[in-house]
Specification:
Blueprint (H helix, E strand, L loop, with lengths): L2 E5 L2 H16 L4 E5 L10 H7 L6 E2 L7 H19 L3 E5 L3 H12 L4 E6 L9 H12 L2 E4 L2 H9 L7 E3 L3 H8 L6 H8 L6 E4 L3 H4 L2 H17 L2 E4 L2 H9 L8 E4 L4 H9 L3 E4 L2 H10 L3 E3 L8 H4 L3 E3 L5 H10 L18 H12 L2
Helix pairs in contact: 1-7, 1-16, 3-4, 4-5, 8-12, 10-11
The structure holds uridine-diphosphate-N-acetylglucosamine and uridine-5'-diphosphate.
Protein name: UDP-N-acetylglucosamine 2-epimerase (Non-hydrolyzing)
Organism: Nocardiopsis kunsanensis
Keywords: Isomerase
Length: 359
């Protein structure tokens, strides 16, 4: 009985926090299952501390592996957990392997599935996340969409309209809830960062898995660092490759461990621009008004381009695109032209629908 939230990876925690909090406000019976897909303190526990998320009721400790072995281990662990807890509904977040594994297991146990951040599409099946998104939406009884085009994608795939709710973006709830806590000056002092810098974060397989690619990217980042310091909290996925490529050898490059949520958004807020391949960072920079260069051929989040500060860049045009952005940084914006319903109330909207679903 009750609502079971399944989270496993860094972006999941940021999305779940406002939903868990809104349901808590309604006195809902809920529990949080952590799959353990991410497990380092800096990829996991720090988010629970920063966001006031309740300690997970259980951590399945699944850890890393190939897609098949990780997904299989996730499914075995989640099947046991769901069989024991008998959830009234399972809530899954985003597009990571924990998301699709939980949706598959719940659907086969005939437990309703609610997907937060449904309907995003990059139309690029070379991204594991795109496969996870499509399968999860297919299996979901409730689809919570962050943007109108996500609603359109679901309609186009034949999902009944009464299953789809446009609720806005819970990741932006978390951002707005914590705006007073992102202290760029304090972060700068603590890490002895320069006044002006570009923040970088890269972890997509297409960018960081191939050593030749990492070497080329390192060259570009060094060219940027000739002009303006680059600060990069390094995701564990690319760490060894960037170290081998000598990214940190340039005096203008500052490599950090992955940052906790409050520190990372403070870093973003204080940056002249951000270079990223993260999904969530495209959205956060849109609201913070910080220019975002996304090193990808496509995005499942086009509202961050039409309503935000995001642009897609190739490795070849990165340096020039950044120079342009640094020449005329757009005014910081708040509230005017932001995507619809990115207003800090998404968790409440999701909680209202979920409360009607489980009694
Ligand atoms: C996962 C998600 C990706 C998401 C990202 C957020 C999938 C398929 N991918 O990618 O969509 O954008 O999380 O950060 O679900 N590792 C550690 N410590 C950790 C976790 C991972 O060192 O706490 C290392 C391991 O070497 C592991 C590698 O990172 O093999 C990749 O981890 P994994 O969870 O498989 O995928 P991510 O690249 O983190
Ligand atoms: N983030 C963080 N520390 C970092 C990098 C990112 O706290 O060093 C936050 C970021 O602000 C956003 C979330 O993690 O809230 C995005 O996660 P990530 O980029 O790992 O995954 P994606 O969004 O690409 O799936």
């Amino acid at each position: 009985t009750g609502i079971v939230h399944v989270v496993g990876a860094r972006p999941n925690f940021v999305k779940a926090a406002p939903v868990v909090s809104a349901l808590r406000g309604r006195g809902a019976h809920q529990s949080v299952v952590h799959t353990g897909q991410h497990y380092d303190d800096r990829m996991s526990a720090v988010f629970f501390r920063d966001l006031g998320l309740p300690t997970p009721d259980v951590d399945l400790g699944v850890g890393s592996g190939s897609h098949a072995s990780q997904t299989a281990a996730l499914m075995v662990g989640l099947e046991e957990e769901f069989t024991r807890r008998e959830p009234g509904v399972v809530v899954v977040y985003g597009d990571v392997n924990s998301t699709v594994a939980a949706a598959l297991v719940a659907a086969k146990l005939q437990i309703p599935v609610a997907h937060v951040e449904a309907g995003l599409r990059s139309f690029d099946n070379s991204m594991p996340e795109e496969i996870n998104r499509r399968v999860t939406d297919r299996l979901s009884d409730l689809c919570f969409a962050t943007s109108p085009e996500a609603v359109g994608h679901l309609a186009g795939e034949g999902v009944a309209t009464d299953r789809v709710h446009l609720v806005g973006n819970p990741m932006i709830d978390t951002l707005l809830d914590n705006l007073d806590r992102f202290d760029a000056d304090a972060l700068r002092a603590r890490f002895e960062l320069p006044d002006s810098y570009v923040a970088a974060t890269l972890h997509r397989p297409a960018n960081v898995d191939d050593p030749d690619n990492v070497a080329r990217l390192t060259g570009r980042l060094h060219t940027i660092a000739d002009q303006i310091p680059v600060v990069m909290p390094v995701h564990p996925r690319g760490k060894a490759a960037f170290d081998r490529a000598g990214l940190g050898d340039h005096p203008g490059v500052r490599l950090l461990d992955p940052l906790g949520y409050l520190d990372f958004v403070a870093l973003t807020r204080g940056a002249a621009a951000v270079v990223t391949d993260s999904g969530g960072v495209q959205e956060e920079t849109t609201i913070l008004g910080v220019p975002c260069l996304t090193l990808r051929p496509n995005t499942e989040r086009p509202v961050t381009i039409t309503h935000g500060t995001n642009q897609l860049v190739t490795e070849d045009d990165l340096v020039q695109a950044l120079a342009k952005v640094l020449d005329g940084r757009p005014e910081s914006r708040t509230g005017d032209d932001v995507p619809p319903l990115w207003d800090g109330r998404s968790g409440e909207r999701i909680a209202a629908v979920l409360s009607g679903w489980v009694r």
